[in-house]
Design brief:
Helix content is about 60%, strand content about 5%. The chain is flat, with a radius of gyration of 29 Å. The chain starts with a helix and ends with a helix. With about 450 residues, it is α+β, with helices and mostly antiparallel strands. The longest helix is centred in the first third of the chain and has 36 residues. It is built from 16 helices and eight strands. Among the domains are: about 170 residues, no CATH class; about 130 residues.
């Protein structure tokens, strides 16, 4: 149960950290508490108000002035908050319809937007918490320092609103959207693949499959978003079994379908299987916790939407290809994530499938290649992307795969483009082949 809570906690923190709930709520609560505490301290220690220069707040004997200031700031801030929400919803709608619904996750994880909502709601909470302190009965009291702080927060909100509008105008730019998704994908690669790739490719291990009757069924339908590898290793060692995952992170698993299989089913009871299931986070949508492919799919979606006849924006597709090549370059420069885990050495405890270079290359470029067969600019940029990827790797197997994809681009364009354009493609394909042949 504790281990299940750990996976749920990680999933909840990922989801809430990327939404409009936790960070704005925390900021609002903190500023509200500051307003309440500061006004109480000021009433208990009048010397605090004396530290504020008279020019900033001359009406120190009239609580009505303080009440008007605090209520006016609170009212105006809530009006601005409604405007901010309207701008935000308009941006999300535009991004969803213009680019792809899957990129909304990058918008809701934007910290500037979260801080904007938090600062405005926090200023409102601050004023509302300090407002009861300004009173005429039973004895007049004016929280000078607290009101001055409210006026300072109001000025901060004005500047923050200007910055937020500037930020939104940039965030809906397709180049900024694609760059943000690419950076998030690179962070996932760096977390999953921290070690640089060596000069030799590791041999592919072929392990015996477990019996078909040792299945651990998925209790619900959804995408595998996170797998607690350490927990599965501990369980496999405790039950002295080998565990084989049927599907990798990012794939959909229906309820009742095998999620994993064990080598010795008699050692795992129905109650024990719940411990293994607790190490998986399965949800209705894919996330970027361990899913490199999901980041690539978001960029590919934008490229395909840009190449559609309704949009016809090859420049955006070219930008997407550039960022896809940057992700693939980082991928080929790192050691692939292990699929076989042993404890002790030579005793297989866990087999966890993951997407390989072939699968990632197809996900990144195959659909774009298909729809760009009649677009010389995008096709040429695809060949240049393959050349850039080939430049950073010396592995012959990877070179052959890149050559095969490049040849597929040229073959797909045959009969769709004029001879002059096909000649350009052939020249770039020849340059790629020459680079690979000349590689040590």
């Amino acid at each position: 149960m504790i281990e299940r809570l750990r996976v749920l906690y990680r999933s909840a923190m990922y989801a809430l950290r990327g939404g409009f709930l936790i960070r704005p709520l925390v900021i609002a609560v903190v500023l509200g508490a500051v307003g309440a505490v500061l006004s109480s301290l000021e009433e208990a220690t009048p010397q605090i108000g004396a530290l504020i220069p008279s020019i900033l707040f001359p009406s120190r004997q009239d609580p009505g002035v303080a009440q008007v200031i605090l209520s006016s700031i609170a009212t105006s801030i809530m009006t601005v908050v409604s405007i901010v929400f309207a701008i935000l919803l308009m941006t999300l709608t535009l991004a969803s319809t213009q680019f792809s619904p899957r990129i909304l996750i990058s918008f809701v994880r934007d910290r500037t937007t979260q801080w904007t909502l938090g600062v405005f709601l926090g200023t409102f909470s601050y004023c509302m918490a300090a407002l009861p302190a300004a009173r005429a009965l039973p004895h007049p009291f004016v929280p000078v320092a607290t009101v001055t702080g409210a006026m300072a927060l109001a000025l901060v909100c004005v500047g923050w609103l200007i910055y937020f509008i500037h930020h939104i105008s940039q965030s809906i730019s397709v180049n900024h959207i694609v760059d943000r998704i690419a950076r998030e994908t690179e962070l996932v690669i760096e977390e999953l693949m921290p070690h640089p790739r060596g000069p030799f490719l590791l041999p592919v291990r072929n392990e015996a499959r477990p019996p078909d009757d040792g299945a651990i069924l998925s209790p619900r339908s959804g995408y595998i978003r996170y797998v607690d590898i350490n927990r599965l290793m501990d369980l496999a060692k405790a039950y002295r079994i080998s565990l084989y995952l049927e599907r990798r992170v990012g794939q959909f698993v229906p309820a009742g379908i095998p999620l994993a299989r064990v080598s010795k089913p008699e050692r795992v009871s129905a109650n024990s299987a719940l411990d293994f299931i607790a190490a998986f986070d399965i949800g209705p949508t894919r996330t970027m916790q361990q899913d490199v492919e999901f980041g690539i799919i978001q960029i590919v979606d934008i490229a395909l939407r840009a190449m559609s006849p309704a949009v016809n924006d090859p420049s955006t597709a070219i930008s997407c290809v550039d960022h896809l090549s940057r992700i693939m370059i980082l991928w080929v420069s790192r050691m692939p994530p292990p699929s076989h885990y042993y404890a002790p050495p030579h005793v297989l405890r866990l087999f966890m499938p993951s997407i390989d270079f072939d699968g990632l290359l197809d996900t990144a470029f195959e659909q774009i290649r298909h729809y760009a067969a009649a677009d010389i600019a995008v096709s040429l940029r695809l060949l240049r992307a393959f050349r850039d990827i080939a430049t950073v790797t010396e592995h012959v197997d990877l070179h052959h795969k890149l050559i095969a994809r490049a040849q597929r681009v040229a073959d797909g364009c045959a009969g769709q483009l004029p001879k002059d354009d096909l000649k350009k493609l052939q020249q770039r394909l020849t340059a790629l082949e020459t680079l690979i042949v000349a590689a040590p």
